[in-house]
Design goal:
The complex is a heterodimer of chains A (about 280) and B (about 425). With about 280 residues, chain A is of the alpha+beta class. Helices cover about 20% and strands about 35% of the residues of chain A. Chain B is of the alpha+beta class and about 425 residues long. Helix content of chain B is about 35%, strand content about 15%. In chain B, strands 1, 2, 3, 4, 5, 8, 9, 10, 11 and 12 form a ten-stranded mixed sheet that branches. Chain B has a two-stranded antiparallel ribbon with strand order 6-7. The model of chain B has no long low-confidence stretch (mean pLDDT about 95). Classes of the chains: A alpha+beta (about 280), B alpha+beta (about 425).
């Protein structure tokens, strides 16, 4: 296993540009590489911006989804490396699992490590998991698994099948309604660095086969968790499946239901009922 | 209704360190700070998921979006969502008034427990559209036809784009609170040196209280701050003497940025309960809220100082409780400005003021200054308007508890609009 420690977060716009230019001719197996950063301090202004866009209260603990924003540039660097078998443009985030052992304080120094695993066959292609581990004071406190679908790709022969399903209850009572504006993708891109063109404008989304810009899955997840502020266990696992794209602008509903000592969640279009996100929140 | 009333117990408090304006909490909203403060209180007293009788809090500078600020903070906190809440606002008296309201409902048996609090930010203050622009926009909103709408829009002028920024000034006099306090300081001949001395004592006492761990169970660190950002443990009379006056005019100006409280951000909360509730929850009773009084003065046309209302409220409270001004072990007189504290004390010592203004046969007399603001007050800690009452109530309750049973403390807080809120606590 090769582990590379980076001094700073890679610049995402350049990586996305490189990803587009080097999309063709990829293949083979997942690289056995890990990228890491050590002693990462959270920028309070960046945190305040993130909290505002996702509707988290600004407090002394990081929002549950915030470490993803710290680890994401490393994951993109990993995926844009020539050795990565799948082309980043066109990858669709289909599932995200976050497990936290305890809340992380704003002032804690964090060590990040990311890697890819589970290159798995899927009915519509292949999936790969981008994993992240966040440690504080030498002990792991937070980990995540982001599953991406590459349509039409093929996984190595004999690999166990992909698992992108999350089971939830009926969730037939909406708890809240959100009007998700036209610029929701641009706003989240600004605070997360995820400048994937499918989120930024109708025009750039069309170039990648979407009829309109789509909301970031991680923003939808973050906003759903923000709605449960004060009602989440300290040690928690949040597992969500991203179903149909949330086209911008849209009006959606959040449904919540107590289940298994935590919550089941669903985010759906207010009119059509199209499911954008379903997920579970469980004490860990 | 209960046949008899009972005294509400003060179980404890929590606050976040106070930050100077546009400092550590520049990006935190009132709701963020109040929620964090409530969650700190919840953590300290094991109230997770608990349905508290009522949460009462407020803010002086408030956005229109914060119409239900306290209830929203409760919903975002770890308290049970079935906890009712409401907002109050009595300028700098907000926090103490909230505690009095909670204590009164407990006294009447209407609730068994309650949280009183307050929050204020001058960094995330509401900015409104210019009043002229607002009128035009309302006119456009009322318009039913395109023609009416165009006519209304024709009233737009570039100058209307300048926003209305809240100012620390009295609406009826146009004077800043400091300017009002400077008038009172001159009237009562409060000298520069005694103001600076009071300021130094406040900083030293607050620093000493932090050093001996007094605030360990009263303050929860927030956004990188673990002590009040305004605290200057090493300040001195010489340092303060160098500052130029910022309020008042000419030779006689005595009030500086040092002996006046700075604009501050912060929040505080106090847990009150019946003795039974505290016992059931295995929680301590630090002190009881015995009684409270408000007063107001005509500072516009009546010739009284803007911040002198507590001087009027205290004798009423003393008389009702059969006490003299000297019957206290601790005095917590909110240090809006050093000169305000000194003018209030001087008024109580003045036979003329006590006779003519308060209608008393004899002056209330002096207090033992060694019992005044013994752990520092607003000059050192800062003064996020609505959060000051909660800071003082929790501090005094703990002081009384430390001193043992049967001790008594007086709280005196002046407020904008010529108002004052005062209260008695007893261990």
């Amino acid at each position: 296993m090769a582990r590379t420690v980076l001094d700073a977060a890679p610049a995402l716009p350049a990586l996305f540009a490189r990803a587009a230019l080097t999309a063709r001719g990829r293949g083979g197996e997942l690289p056995d590489t890990r990228l890491a950063r050590t002693g990462v301090a959270v920028d309070p202004a960046a945190l305040a911006d993130y909290a505002q866009v996702c509707r988290f209260p600004l407090g002394d603990a990081l929002p549950l989804t915030f470490p993803h924003v710290l680890a994401f540039p490393l994951q993109v660097a990993l995926m844009t490396d020539r050795a990565f078998p799948l082309a980043l443009p066109g990858l669709v985030h289909v599932r995200n699992l976050i497990e936290a052992d305890r809340p992380i304080g704003v002032g804690e120094q964090l060590d990040l490590e990311v890697w890819a695993e589970r290159f798995a066959p899927h009915a519509r292609g292949a999936t790969v998991d981008l994993c992240a581990s966040v440690s504080a004071g030498g002990a792991e406190v937070w980990r995540s698994r982001s599953t991406y679908l590459a349509r039409g790709a093929s996984a190595p022969e004999g690999a166990p099948a992909s698992d992108v399903d999350v089971e939830v209850g009926a969730l037939d009572r909406p708890a809240a309604q959100w009007r998700v504006p036209d610029d929701a993708g641009r706003r989240y891109a600004k605070v997360s660095g995820d400048v994937n063109p499918i989120h930024l404008s109708g025009l750039t989304a069309k170039a990648f086969g979407f009829k309109r810009a789509i909301a970031h899955g991680m923003w939808v997840k973050a906003r759903a968790l923000a709605a449960l502020s004060g009602r989440l266990p300290d040690a928690v696992a949040v597992d969500v499946a991203f179903r149909k794209p949330l086209f911008l602008p849209s009006t959606v509903t959040l449904s919540t239901e107590q289940a298994g000592g935590g919550w089941d969640l669903a985010v759906r279009n207010v009119k059509s009922g199209t499911e954008h996100l379903i997920g579970t929140v469980r004490p860990a | 209704m209960a046949a008899q009333t009972r005294k509400a117990a003060i179980v404890g408090g929590n606050r976040i360190p106070f930050a100077r304006s546009n400092g550590a909490y520049a990006r935190a909203s009132n709701q963020d700070m109040l929620t964090a403060t409530l969650d700190g209180l919840v953590a300290r007293f094991g109230l997770q998921g608990e349905q508290v009788g009522e949460v009462v809090a407020g803010a002086v500078l408030k956005h229109a979006r914060d119409f239900n600020l306290t209830r929203e903070a409760v919903l975002g906190s770890r308290l049970s969502a079935a906890t009712p809440a409401y907002d109050v606002q009595q300028a700098c008296g907000t926090g103490l008034e909230a505690a009095v309201l909670v204590a009164n409902k407990i006294a009447l048996g209407q609730i068994e427990s309650g949280i009183a609090g307050g929050t204020d930010t001058t960094s995330d203050a509401p900015v409104a559209v210019n009043e002229d622009l607002r009128r035009v926009l309302m006119e456009v909103n009322r318009a039913k036809t395109v023609q009416q709408r165009l006519k209304a829009l024709a009233g737009l002028r570039p100058g209307q784009l300048a926003p209305e920024i809240p100012r620390n000034a009295e609406p009826r006099t146009g004077l800043a609170m400091g300017d009002h306090a400077a008038i009172t300081a001159a009237e009562w001949e409060i000298g520069r040196q005694e103001q600076d001395e009071l300021t130094v004592r406040s900083h030293q006492a607050l620093a000493a209280a932090y050093d001996r761990g007094f605030f360990d169970d009263l303050v929860t660190p927030f956004l990188g701050l673990s002590r009040d950002a305004n605290l200057r443990p090493d300040t001195s009379g010489e340092k303060l003497a160098k500052l130029k006056p910022v309020f008042g005019q000419g030779e006689g100006a005595t009030m500086t940025a040092g002996n006046s409280t700075p604009l501050t951000d912060g929040a505080s909360a106090v847990l009150l309960a019946s003795d039974e509730w505290a016992a059931e929850h295995d929680l301590p009773v630090l002190a009881h809220l015995v009684d409270a009084q408000t007063a107001a003065v005509d500072y516009v046309h009546g010739g009284e100082g803007l911040l002198m209302a507590p001087a009027y409220a205290v004798p009423v409270l003393l008389a009702r409780n059969g006490l003299s001004l000297q019957d206290f072990d601790f005095y917590e007189v909110h240090e809006a400005f050093a000169s305000t504290v000194l003018a209030t004390l001087k008024a109580w010592e003045s036979p003329a003021f006590c006779k003519e203004k308060l209608g008393l046969d004899a002056p209330l007399g002096s207090i033992d200054r060694s019992k005044l603001n013994v752990n520092g007050s607003s000059l050192a800690a800062g003064h996020p308007f609505a959060a000051t009452g909660g800071r003082i109530v929790a501090t005094l309750a703990k002081l009384l508890h430390e001193a043992g049973p049967g001790k008594r403390g007086l709280i005196s807080i002046c407020a904008a609009g010529g108002q004052g809120v005062v209260a008695i606590l007893e261990s």
